[in-house]
């Protein structure tokens, strides 16, 4: 999983990051709420391990921001407050789970694994052969390998896979470019298609001359 660690205790943050990396997770660490909001806006994560009492922007504000935007990011909240009222309050503002400090790393890992299982059970997918587009997290996989895409590439792939082998016309793809704030031109679409072919294999996207593209 891609995990954002938001913890202002530097030693604790480093320990969590090292442990998660050793488990094979991709981890980004920040030390305040403002940096967390920036990372959440610019990068994709599956889970945020979020300390509640953060400097600059409070952890509650970060959790509420994640919940209010409909983000697929799941929140595991950390806090020194372990009373029932605090736990319930954290869950009500958007946390998926709650872990009181101090804690054992094994419990943190077990709670993350439980969140990961829930994510897998909730993610609708679009599949064609060994191509899998997980729409909840906007992730593309070829077999077990994850492939990064730009927002426009993702939207084009979503349209092509949703067509279930049918042709998606240039007009529809031009609208996707327009929706992304890009110039509505065939050049923009062709550039995105060319990039996708390099990433997933040129044979996977077929050009139907005068009509559009399809994934057979």
From TrEMBL:
<feature type="domain" description="Response regulatory">
    <location>
        <begin position="2"/>
        <end position="116"/>
    </location>
</feature>
<dbReference type="GO" id="GO:0000156">
    <property type="term" value="F:phosphorelay response regulator activity"/>
</dbReference>
<dbReference type="Pfam" id="PF00486">
    <property type="entry name" value="Trans_reg_C"/>
</dbReference>
<dbReference type="GO" id="GO:0005829">
    <property type="term" value="C:cytosol"/>
</dbReference>
<feature type="modified residue" description="4-aspartylphosphate">
    <location>
        <position position="51"/>
    </location>
</feature>
<dbReference type="GO" id="GO:0000976">
    <property type="term" value="F:transcription cis-regulatory region binding"/>
</dbReference>
<dbReference type="GO" id="GO:0032993">
    <property type="term" value="C:protein-DNA complex"/>
</dbReference>
<keyword id="KW-0597">Phosphoprotein</keyword>
<feature type="DNA-binding region" description="OmpR/PhoB-type">
    <location>
        <begin position="123"/>
        <end position="216"/>
    </location>
</feature>
<dbReference type="InterPro" id="IPR039420">
    <property type="entry name" value="WalR-like"/>
</dbReference>
<dbReference type="InterPro" id="IPR001789">
    <property type="entry name" value="Sig_transdc_resp-reg_receiver"/>
</dbReference>
<feature type="domain" description="OmpR/PhoB-type">
    <location>
        <begin position="123"/>
        <end position="216"/>
    </location>
</feature>
<dbReference type="InterPro" id="IPR036388">
    <property type="entry name" value="WH-like_DNA-bd_sf"/>
</dbReference>
<dbReference type="GO" id="GO:0006355">
    <property type="term" value="P:regulation of DNA-templated transcription"/>
</dbReference>
<keyword id="KW-0238">DNA-binding</keyword>
<dbReference type="Pfam" id="PF00072">
    <property type="entry name" value="Response_reg"/>
</dbReference>
<dbReference type="InterPro" id="IPR011006">
    <property type="entry name" value="CheY-like_superfamily"/>
</dbReference>
<dbReference type="InterPro" id="IPR001867">
    <property type="entry name" value="OmpR/PhoB-type_DNA-bd"/>
</dbReference>
<protein>
    <recommendedName>
        <fullName>DNA-binding response OmpR family regulator</fullName>
    </recommendedName>
</protein>
């Amino acid at each position: 999983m891609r995990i954002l660690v938001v913890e202002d205790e530097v030693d604790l943050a480093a320990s969590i990051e090292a442990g998660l990396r050793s488990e094979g997770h991709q981890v980004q660490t920040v030390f305040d709420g403002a940096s967390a909001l920036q990372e959440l806006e610019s990068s994709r994560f599956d889970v945020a391990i979020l300390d509640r009492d953060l400097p600059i922007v409070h952890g509650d504000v970060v959790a509420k921001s994640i919940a209010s935007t409909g983000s697929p990011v799941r929140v595991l909240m950390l806090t020194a407050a372990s009373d029932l009222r605090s736990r319930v309050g954290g869950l009500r503002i958007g946390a998926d789970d709650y872990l009181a400090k101090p804690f054992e790393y094994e419990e943190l890992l077990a709670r993350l694994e439980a969140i990961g299982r829930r994510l897998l059970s909730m993610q609708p997918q679009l599949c064609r052969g060994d191509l899998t587009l997980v729409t909840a997290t906007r992730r593309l996989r070829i077999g077990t390998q994850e492939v990064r895409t730009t927002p426009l590439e993702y939207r084009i792939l979503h349209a092509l896979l949703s067509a279930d082998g049918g042709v998606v016309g240039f007009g529809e793809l031009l609208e996707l470019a327009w929706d992304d704030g890009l110039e509505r031109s065939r050049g923009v679409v062709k550039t995105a298609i060319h990039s996708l072919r390099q990433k997933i294999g040129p044979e996977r996207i077929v050009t139907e001359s005068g009509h559009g593209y399809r994934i057979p």
